[in-house]
Amino acid sequence: MKIYYLANARLPTEKAHGYQICKMCAEFARAGATVILIAPDRARPGDGDIFSYYGLERNFTVKLLPLPAYPRLEGWLGPRWPYRLLNWHFLYKLACQTIEKDAVVYTRQPEIARLFGRRGWRSILEAHSLPIGQGKSFRRALQHIERFIVVTRTLGDQLQTLGVPAEKIIWAPDGVDLKIFAQPLNKKTARSDFGLPLDKIILGYTGSFRTMGEDKGIGDILAALAKLDAQYYFAAVGGNEADIKDYKIIAKNLGVSERTAFRARVNLQQLSRFQQACDILLMPFPDIRHYREHMSPLKMFEYMASGRPIIASDLPSIREILNESNCLLVKPNDPADLAEKIRLLATDKNLADRLAVRAQQDAKQYDWRKRAEKILKFIDKTS
């Protein structure tokens, strides 16, 4: 099978979606597919090499399409128009590409899936969200897409209400690299690596601090920390410079700055080591539509594989993977409940160990390779 993964995204990027896209390309290739990733050529971190940035095997082809620097016009045109121009130009460039008719076009963008589906290609959409207003044009677009991969069951239900038959949809939540995140490490050694205190109960968080400008729960963590005594310490890894600065100010205002550490993004191997330094891993997402219905966070699967107990928000998207047997669920937007659950895990070692062991066992079913094989089988079955 030949797959053209068409991604309207800056690659590589510090954000999780970039890793997810490139990791799936690598896993599709490992499963036997010939994979060509096509993305816009935009400003990229580091040396710009996707494979070294994400630590991936060089088993698929990358083609970057040059585009004008439309974002530089933001000061003249406002925040939206430069990116609309960028998107339209990328679609035009894609339409001019030579893609074999017997190849599969795979994408996370509905407009790309529609473009190629209308022109006769087998078009597969991996849906991570749906637009807020699903008008007639969006419903028509769905008719041209052959198959849908959804990361939450709610997304699948919503597609069915829009007229997509159930047999055209498969649920495939995100995954984890068990070779990286399921490796145990002495807690003392891990803390020394990150300069974390050896005598504290470390509450950990990994990943970007905000998504689409929305807080991902760090605000509630800091508010909960203010309700806990001095033995508790919070460390977060994965923020950008602006977010780190903002949350340091919030921590200072709450009087907990001496019990916090905020770090920038690290690579996956370092991220795994950081998780081993923690006593409890946190993801208290607020209750907003995206987190409630469409979220399949990479950190959730990485936390599960780590062997550390997890506290997570009680949201429908989270409950598709986590439950009372493998984590402690807390009320969203409730720092008091979060503080109470933290105390419970910190004082009940048997509970913490039981939840951590079960989560680590459950993580095995969410290996990236299994996800790729499941999706390829679904696509092949319908060819």
TrEMBL record:
Domain Glycosyltransferase subfamily 4-like N-terminal: 22-178
PANTHER family documented for this protein: GLYCOSYLTRANSFERASE (PTHR12526), GLYCOSYLTRANSFERASE (GROUP I) (PTHR12526:SF622)
Alphabetized SUPFAM superfamilies for the sequence: UDP-Glycosyltransferase/glycogen phosphorylase (SSF53756)
Protein name, UniProt field: Uncharacterized protein
Glycosyl transferase family domain segment(s): 187-361
